[in-house]
Structure formats: C-alpha cells, structure tokens
C-alpha cells in the first residue's frame, strides 16, 4: 500500500503548528486588497487585514490557482505518494472544482496516480476538523479509501455556528438586503448563521445584542451536539451552575472557536463552552482573510462535532 499525504486549502484555518507537526500540505486561496494580491508568499497579518477592513478597504477573494494545484499535486505523485485532499465547500467557492479538475487531469496523465478530493461542504475549522479527523484515522492505520469513505459518511456531523458583528459584510455578499442591514444595525440585531448540508452559509435566526448572539451560538452548539440527562442551560450561559456531558461530542476532536480579529470575545466564547460542556478541549484561531473578507471584523464562529447540521 502506497503512503499518502493529506492536503487541504488555507480556508481550513488550521493552526500553523498543527500543519507543521502533521505535515499537512496547504493550497492557498487568495485575496486582493488595494491592488495587491495576497495568499501565497505575500501575506498580511490578521491584524493588518482586519484593520484595513475597519478602515474602509474592501477586499475581493479568488479561489485556488490551477497552476499551483497542478504543481503541488505533481510533486507529491512523482514522489510516489497518493493524495487525499479535503476541500473548502464547493457551494462557497470555485476552489473545489479547480482542485477536482487538476486531480482528474493528473490522474489521466499518470495512470498509476491516486488523488481523492473530498468536498467538505464546510468552511474554516469546520473543514479543518475534517482534516484533523483524517489525520487521526491515518495515524490509527486506516487507508486512504477508508478515510475518504468515512469522511463522506460523516459530512453532516461537522457543524458550524456563526455570528457577525457588522451586517454590512453580509449585505455586500448578498446574504441580506441593504435595507435589512441598515435597519438591523440601527436596532442592534445580530444574525446567527450555520453551514447547512449543501455547504452554504445560511441564516438560522437573529438576536438582539452582541453578548446574546455569543451565548446563543454556544446554546445552539449544545443542542446540535445532543444533551444528556435533560440538563438545561441557564439563560445566561456564563452563569450556568451545571455542565452537560456530551456523549461522543468531539469524536476525539476539539471544539474550535474562530474569530475575525476579536480575540477577547473568542476567549469569552471559549469560557462559555468550557463552563457548559464537561471536559471540553477548546482551540481558538483567527478566520483566514479569504473567508474574513465576507464575514468581516468581529465575526465569531464555533466549529464542532454534532449529531447533524440541521438539529
């Protein structure tokens, strides 16, 4: 059996140390800001990127480059490796189709090559958790086909709850109307969004006030994970006296909090999770620019293993 390499793209928002430790190969997605293209050798720090948006600059995003995809996969297969690629949602970007086309062309040219592309139908560390599970299964001795089949079977278990601080960026991306963005901003309405089974980021409700939106996505996470012993969360999650034990909640995976340069609020959400979910392992990372261009500064998301995306 050939050795295989797990690859993904920069929208998976994996921690740099994890990427290095596990030997994950990253294919970049790109963004343009002030007439400069970033995403490969040239990058802004998260602070620089989000501050530029706060200052009024509006980035545009681009999917992965076919030439980079070709060179990345070619190097791996000529080294005798097979490739398992876990892609950003095809419903949110053309990157998945670019990768699938590149893989198909190389496998036609190199008939002994194997490149499997799994469409995560997910984003940020929702996609990243799939990569982490693939690594865990590989380290347990599972083969490339078995891992790909497992991931496809469990796509709907990788869940995302999301809220944004500024409705303008949702309006700019066509998620809500200009009128809704204006009125919602005036009365401090905060949307709650999820990634659905089709891999789209869709509205799942609204609440009034930032703090309420953060406690709501934690409460929604618990519902999707599945509560036991009929434990009920307090209205103010941070004040809940009881925690809930989630059977098989993480399937060996952490709960992930991602943010658009809102580290203090991400830490607050992490504390809510730890106070609510017994023995939870929580990691925090910043949202990559090619996603953050659409969610904006202050966006907060939770990525986790749940019963399904629609509960």
Record the SSE blueprint.
Elements: E1 4-9, H1 16-22, E2 25-27, E3 30-33, E4 36-38, H2 46-54, E5 60-62, H3 66-78, E6 82-87, H4 95-109, E7 115-119, H5 124-139, H6 144-153, E8 158-163, H7 167-172, H8 178-186, E9 189-195, E10 201-208, H9 210-225, E11 255-259, H10 263-276, E12 282-286, H11 289-295, E13 300-305
Please tell me about this protein's structure:
By secondary structure, the protein is α/β, with parallel strands linked by helices. Helix content is 39%, strand content 22%. It has eleven helices and 13 strands. A six-stranded mixed beta sheet has the order 10-9-8-13-11-12, sandwiched between helices. The chain has a four-stranded parallel beta sheet with strand order 2-1-6-7, sandwiched between helices. Strand 11, helix 10 and strand 12 (282-286) form a beta-alpha-beta unit. The chain is globular, with a radius of gyration of 19 Å. Residues 175-187 and 228-250 have low confidence and may be disordered.
